[in-house]
Amino acid sequence: MSGKEGSGGFRKRKHDNFPHGQRREEKENVNLSSALMTSFKSFQLELDTRHDKYERLVKLSRDITIESKRTIFLLHRFTSAPNGEEVLNESEIKLDAVRRKIKQVAQELIGEDMYQFHRAISPGLQEYVEAVSFQYFIKTRSLISVEEINKQLIFTAEDREETTNTTSNSHDKQPHTWSLKVTPVDYLLGVADLTGELMRLCISSVGNGDIDTPFELSQFLRQIYDGFTFIGNTGPYEVSKKLYTLKQSLAKVENACYTLKVRGSEIPKHMLADVFSTKTELIDQEEGLS
After folding, report:
1. Three-state DSSP class for residue 179
2. Residue 207: φ, ψ to 5°
3. SS3 (DSSP) at 273
4. pLDDT digits (tens, 9 = 90+) for 152-185
5. Contact 85, 75 (CB under 8 A)
6. Residue 83 and residue 94: Cα distance in Å, rounded?
7. How far apart are the C-alpha atoms of 135 and 143, rounded to whole Å?
8. Residue 92 pLDDT > 90
9. What predicted TM-score, i.e. pTM, was given to this entire model?
């Protein structure tokens, strides 16, 4: 056994040769007011502030996601509700509440680089794009643009704080503006998720006896799919992943249109929705096996 090893055969660490009291004295002798310690304290404060802001943004993003999903669930009642305008008005109220949450996100990002916190807010923005584009499609049968979405995310408020200026406008309210831009990637991912909701809208429309909506949705989804195929593998990785789900939604809608065109006269209208739901389950099982 070498001299560096103890009786148990384990190698001693270098600092074990120094008494604990001496190490405690060295810690007490550290100059906390030195330039180095001051710099590290400022780094610690900056990192803690950034982490706290990131967590607040994650919580806001969750709230935006939840409220957007509730709006989507509400909009699915449009085809079966006796008064569709009431559903649209209620959905607009819910989207206004979502925008108030997004306003809080914009206020948190004042003076910050949005892309440093993009991972925290991206899920909520994607869900908001899905909800607002779904509502827009029900109203206009077209796709909302990213520019129109960003126009809705410009917020104004009035600062009621007292100013120290002695001019005649010193007591006037000072307008403030906050804005948050949806990135092109978040917009594309939200539109890709929209296709799943349109597929569900197609099935529910057939169940309510609406035969024309599935054919409109088929043409609309085909245009979206063609647009995504132009991006292909050149776009972000998340977009290429959504392409497979988009293709599934398109196939289910086209299968519904095929059934309506070929066998629509054979199947009673109140049974069409059950036939489509059964066929979509078979398609899912076949794709899972392949």
Report:
1. strand
2. -60, -25
3. helix
4. 999 887 543 433 343 444 444 455 788 899 999 9
5. no
6. 18
7. 10
8. yes
9. 0.76
